Amino acid sequence: MSTTYRRRDILQLLGFGGVVFASGLVAGCAANGAAMTAPRAPGPPVPPARDFFFLQLSDTHWGFKGPPNPESELTLKQTVAAINAVETQPDFIVFTGDLTHTTDDPKERRARMAEFKEIVSELKVKTLRFLPGEHDASPDGGEAYIEAFGPTHYSFDHQGVHFVAVDNVSEASGVIGDAQLAWLEKDLAAVASDAPIVVLTHRPLFDLYPQWEWATRDGARALEILAKRPNVTVFYGHIHQEHHQMTGAIAHHSARSLIFPLPAPGSVPKKAPLPWDPTSSDHGLGYRVVEARRESFEIREVPFGMRG
Questions:
Q1: For 209-221, how does the pLDDT look when each residue is reduced to its tens digit (9 = 90+)?
Q2: Rounded-to-integer distance, Cα 208 and Cα 193, Å
Q3: What angle is formed at CA 153 by the lines to CA 149 and CA 158, rounded to 5 degrees?
Q4: Would you state the pLDDT for residue 17?
Q5: Which domains does the chain carry?
Q6: What is the per-residue pLDDT across 49-106, written as a single tens digit (0 to 9) for each?
Q7: SS3 per-residue string spanning the chain
Q8: What would the pLDDT profile of 153-203 be if each residue is shown by its tens digit?
Q9: pLDDT tens column, 246-305
Q10: Residues with Cβ < 8 Å from 102, sequence gap 6 or more?
């Protein structure tokens, strides 16, 4: 299928709207599009890439009920229907944490995860990637999450891009931990030095606003490992809003939530969901399209309610 057709269909997905953020992604291209000359490390060569796109959905909080979203039982289901309505489907979909809303009842936690899985099983795209959020994993160290979805951290390759899912929520203190950091360094050591790296995680790896737990306590150690690579992009959730930041050469992009928005970092004395606005067309909710091309990628935000 041609790139032109894919791009046209993505625009249909967006309702010919949305915010676009572009930067480098594919091996051999820097963030400004300049050629990279970094030597290739030992490891398998980067396979020939083709254009592709994937979707990032985050913070669905299945099981939440309350005034911040009086339609909480509908938003995830409506989003699934909107994605299915588009003719050209993404290569895969990733959910970057807080799939379910927290509960102290282990039985209810598992029931919510089962309900979430049943809803997203209706997606036409069957390659789904999941990450835990603190609502899913912190109460029991990830026990119920692992039963339902498998490992909390892992890596995979797709069209010349190396994806790494990092768990910074299973430890209640908000750390990645020594063992996983050692795994991350070993995982990347086996990947060619000029391969593009995409990191998927829930909390931000940098100190966005630690007072609200919008940080990872040992995130700086992960960034030290990632900074050795010339082409790294991080996609995360947790803060329920779009946010774009650079730490050195590493680009970080947070996604909207599909349950309720949160205020900008430090903009109010206490973090709390923003009130539901019945007059809003999207209620501050949404997800994103990431389109990878040979020379760059584009992030397109999809406000809730838009469909092709």
A1: 999 999 999 999 9
A2: 28
A3: 90
A4: 37
A5: 3-303 (3.60.21.10)
A6: 578 999 999 999 999 999 999 999 999 999 999 999 999 999 999 999 999 999 999 9
A7: CCHHHHHHHHHHHCCCCCCEEEECCCCCECCCCCECCCCCCCCCCCCCCCCEEEEEECCCCECCCECCECCCCCHHHHHHHHHHCCCCCCCEEEEECCCECCCCCHHHHHHHHHHHHHHHCCCCCCCEEEECCHHHHHHHCCHHHHHHHCCCCEEEEECCEEEEECCCCCCCCCCCCHHHHHHHHHHHHCCCCCCCEEEECCCCCCCCEHHHCECCCCHHHHHHHHCCCCCEEEEECCCCCCEEEEECCEEEEECCCCCCCCCCCCCCCCCCCCCCCCCCCCCCCEEEEEEECCCCEEEEEEECCCCC
A8: 999 999 999 999 999 999 989 999 999 999 999 999 999 988 999 999 999
A9: 999 999 999 999 999 999 999 999 999 999 999 999 999 999 999 987 666 789 999 998
A10: 134, 135, 136, 138, 139
Structure token digits, residue 175: 């750390």
